[in-house]
Amino acid sequence: MNFKNTFSEQIVSMLNIFVNEQKKRFPDSEVLTIDLHCHDHNSNIPDEQLGRILGIPETWLPTEDLLQTLKNHGCNTFTITNHNNARSCWQLLDKGEDILVGAEFSCTVPDYKVGIHVLTYGFNPEQECKLNKYRNDIYKFIDYTREHDLPTIWAHPLYHYKSKGIPPMEFFDKMALLFERFEVINGQRDSWQNMLVKQWLESLTPDKLEELSHKFKIKPDRYCTSPYNKYMSGGSDSHMGIFTGLTGTYLHIPNLDERLQTQKRSALALEAIKNGAMAPFGTHNDSEKMAISFIDYFCQIGMNMKDPGLPHILLHKGDTQDKLAALAITNAFHELKRHKTTLNFLELFHKSLIGKTFSRTKRFYVSKDYKNVFDIAYTLSRYTKTRKKDDVVFYTESIYAIYKELLQLLMKRSDKHINELIKDDRFKSKEFESFFQKIEIPVHFRKYIEGNEKNNGNGSAKVNLPKLFDELSFPFLGSAVIAAAFFTSARVMYKARPLLYEFAKEHNTLKHPERTLWLTDTFTDSNGVAMVLQSMLKEIQKRDLPIDIITVSSTLQPQDHLIVIRPLKEFTLPFYEQQPLRIPDILEIHNIFKEGEYSKIIASTEGPMGLAALWLKYAYSVPAYFYVHTDWMMFAEQTLKLTDENLNNFRRLLRTFYKGFDGLFVLNNDHRKWLTGKDMGFNPSQVFLTAHWVEEIFKPYKTNKEQIFGVDEKTPIILFAGRLSEEKGVMDIPKVMNMVKQKHPNAKIAFAGIGPKEKELKQILPDAIFLGWVNHDDLPKVYSAADILVLPSRFDTFGCVVLEALSCGLPVIAYNTKGPKDIINNGLNGYLVKNDTEMAAKIIELFNNPLLLNLFKNQSILRANEFSPDKIIKQFVNDINSAA
Fold first, then answer.
1. Does residue 431 register a pLDDT over 70?
2. Nearest 5°: phi and psi at 521?
3. Given the DSSP bridges, would you call strands 663-666 and 624-627 parallel, antiparallel or unpaired?
4. Of 11, 188, 440, 739, which has fewest CB within 10 angstroms of its CB?
5. pLDDT at 460 over 80
């Protein structure tokens, strides 16, 4: 699908115009070029709780490497702004280097309980101690810097640190009175965020600042020397050093050459910052730069990380979620360290990203499977060493090329193991119970797979899981590192997205478009979910709604509003043979979401695409909703034959999955009642009732029974339409027919559909009519020719066949449960019954009363007309927007 990136284009155009204007402000001969926001190894205590629990620094970058990169990228004046310390600056001054002393202080705004970062320059060691003392109160901090003439810059103003929610908009109004310098171009934040800051600052006119002064009872010059001027700066905010110096600030010094004869660059830089003689520079940025930096960071974690120890993790003051994440990360990197090939890959990749070339002769010692990866890394290292511009395209293309190579290798190696797993008796439905036992997972996950290596208690294990993991380790771990870097970069960059939406709305500028991506594992398969989504796509196309459906298929072609990606792997599980499992490329979906500028997510299936929806939700900080089509509890009970204990475990698994979403759409009141009850515990405001509709082809047709069923017109025809499977209740039909035939011996049952119970039904009901698979467009004629539709299923969450039948004037008799209960008006267009005995009795009643049967047929059409797509879709879209 071709995306029209009108919003992105608008942002990029605005940024380019702004940067070009800033470049023209000062003569080239009178500017110092400096990156006012960069880090090295002395940024060793992360702000994020997770990093502190793991005991890892924000970077291992040596000071000399940072300075060399700054020089290579065109900077001629230098500072290092580590978190809450200026150690690197003091060390360089001790060596006689000319360096502008600086640091990035983590400060707290006490009345809003919000953390912000403040770049501060020109202090001495004694003042550094005071600044660290006062940083817990931003007002005292700014008072101190004002008193001692220390210039400050509010770093990335729209990226805040708040435990819950976002700051109120008045928070930014108040901060506008505290600062006169703002970082407008931050190299680690996306261009939308940067341009929102620019737009906001340009709106702070003297009149507006006076208005805010009165509102907060703060005199304009209380904290600012030049209260009506708001100056803008730029900085790379680079921790890994890859993009250091490619975003920064031009500092204007009149008569620069002359003044350099007597003054140091650092002194002149400090003067320019104080005077606000600054012009930011940089290029467009989304998450790619940060992803590249995180790949390098993860490589270094793999090379350098020490085991923090279980007591350190458990006893840390961090919250449970962070501790669990720390355990998972520790185990992941512990596993990674076990594999020499993977560690060699991390070291190779790290060298490539920082431009440290290595001998091509090493290629001769590389396994044949990995030579392509080596070649790409080698080329990348050569590019990094010689590049001079801020261009991430080559980096991104190289990283994706390596990722694709690793994925192909992973899929190739996994074929044999997947086949072994599928053949394992424990994966067959009849023995699924033993597989779904309660799992106690030790701290080190490998202990679990090694502990279950021998057998599953009955000697049926056929798969050596440790061997499987070892064989897949390098392609799996290597691709996982890359995928994790892209997820983490998006997570960090777009963490502020809810704030950006609110900020853009508040200031009526740069509002992000509203567009929804709908993910599904099935679209053309023979199931109800696929049919509903096909119908939904037609309505989306008809109305040109801002919704795109994305699915995985090896044969389907894209359409307007339909995105199709090809599966990496496709296979069928023994316990759910009706739906192939298709494995998508998560980074392909990740990029489609970004390029499509989506703002919301819907998922329709609990498979890989459902998990991908949760990936997108947490990566991009957007609301996500789940459309519940299937009653999996009924499936687990009737098909998987789980015991009560394991049904509870299965329910908990479902609850955990659904809890990841911001809202659920359900198709019947019973399901909504269950989800909002004590077993599942969802807030009623998060569970929305919706419905299906039928296409216009479902209407009464003039047809005859001989043409459709091969019988004369007087033969009473009872129809079942759907999959011939146990969960559909088809095995109740023989008993129903036995009772009906006692009163109407010539009555016949017709089955429109196929399934695993077809053979058994043919044996039990030799005189039944089996139509096989009926084409969707032919179903209306089948419905029109029948007398009654029966649905003995307790599984259907809606019952599209019920609505299809009613639309064709065919009354329905169904069990009084779930979807049918919300569609059928009992005693008016059909009957809702408790069991097979009642079902047979109601069939007999209608056959005994032709006038009543005709009345039901007329009422069926009237009831079906109430399920209008216009009404349903309008409510559906309204619910999504109101919930968001």
1. no
2. -85, -20
3. parallel
4. 440
5. no
